[in-house]
Amino acid sequence: MSDSQTSVAELKQLVQEFVEARRWREFHTPKNLATSILIEGAELCEHFQWLTPEQSLELAGQVDASSPIAEELADIFSYVLATANALEVDLSEALRRKMLKNAIKYPLPDWSLGWSSPSARSPAASVPKQA
Amino acid sequence: MSDSQTSVAELKQLVQEFVEARRWREFHTPKNLATSILIEGAELCEHFQWLTPEQSLELAGQVDASSPIAEELADIFSYVLATANALEVDLSEALRRKMLKNAIKYPLPDWSLGWSSPSARSPAASVPKQA
Amino acid sequence: MSDSQTSVAELKQLVQEFVEARRWREFHTPKNLATSILIEGAELCEHFQWLTPEQSLELAGQVDASSPIAEELADIFSYVLATANALEVDLSEALRRKMLKNAIKYPLPDWSLGWSSPSARSPAASVPKQA
Amino acid sequence: MSDSQTSVAELKQLVQEFVEARRWREFHTPKNLATSILIEGAELCEHFQWLTPEQSLELAGQVDASSPIAEELADIFSYVLATANALEVDLSEALRRKMLKNAIKYPLPDWSLGWSSPSARSPAASVPKQA
Fold this sequence. Notes:
Chain A is an all-alpha fold. Helices cover about 60% and strands about 0% of the residues of chain A.
């Protein structure tokens, strides 16, 4: 029942049934759900609020699926799925299309082709300005 | 290539390869990624900022996978996947565990069993206090 | 000791001394403080998460200075002041300059001059698109 | 017209008049305003998204009142003031009360009294867990 054996549609369905059974649909407007993603996102941020970047990195591999941090991530994910349900968006298709657009916006640097020059790796150049 | 044919692991892999190829890993600390979920979440919220709940509902079914709203949702999703990658969290397992916990916290109301009394459906009682 | 008798500088000073006395300055990087505004902002949002706009309006005049909602607002404000301290920004000047810019971006509608035509008040036209 | 010469009430008034003149009051529900604080907060965060804490610190003293970063801070501040207006909250009083509560929650460490022992300054102990 892990990520490799679970389709996005199965998880959308899980969230959908939970919401329907509780008759929460009237509360699940796109406007409320988008704000809920932010509210849960802030709870995840709280875990890292005063950590250095390095301290936050040390958490990798120590976060099992029922830890508080994984629970916050699950909460955010559940609202992403609920928003996709409410707006009838195919997440996999939306993600693939956006990644294609990102790939054009952030073309592969020379080094990924094996012949980068050191000057191409200046710190400034590698700071992503993602959107 | 839709949600029903795509595993969560495939999308994690897609994001992982994108990040690795651009050598963005050093920027992808859990702390930075959690804040990035918030930044993208706020961009989604902006689309609904001054809409009434009803106006936001009217968008359902009108948001195709390459529309600006679907792109914002894809951006949030990509950072959820990147955070799961950075923290080595199985999202499907984390979500299922959290939903089980939610099911205990928000037990099914009487009406879902087919014999609810009208008094059980008071608006106050049905306002979800989710976490 | 109310808003009419308190300068912005006094409140900046109050926050500054609190931070210095606890030697929190090293944690108060602009990056951490900006995220903290978001974290506290999300806690304020939580109070309104499942309310209708109308229900949220009914709270006006019922929120005294020590209620949970006022406390969340105070938390956000304290981080705004801390960020201004860390970045050495004069908030009053920054606000006045931004409001002047906003006044150009959102010119006064006809009706404010007393001779508006009904057509100028179409709902679409009055939806603010603020930035 | 700087922070030392400006009362909080003057800035509340400035925002109030701007909103009234544009008839935006109907949009300025506490629910919408709280979300707007988050939206503007996220735009401030974007400036620091991929910076190290140290890089964000280097911005201190370089942010004049009309720079993009000061404008984002002004935007957040304007929504804090608008929320206080909508909810009829005295911000100075709310802030002072909350700071008193924080002072109890985070008592002054020994070192601030001049006789701290080195062991009292362990990094872990000084990580603020603010709320």
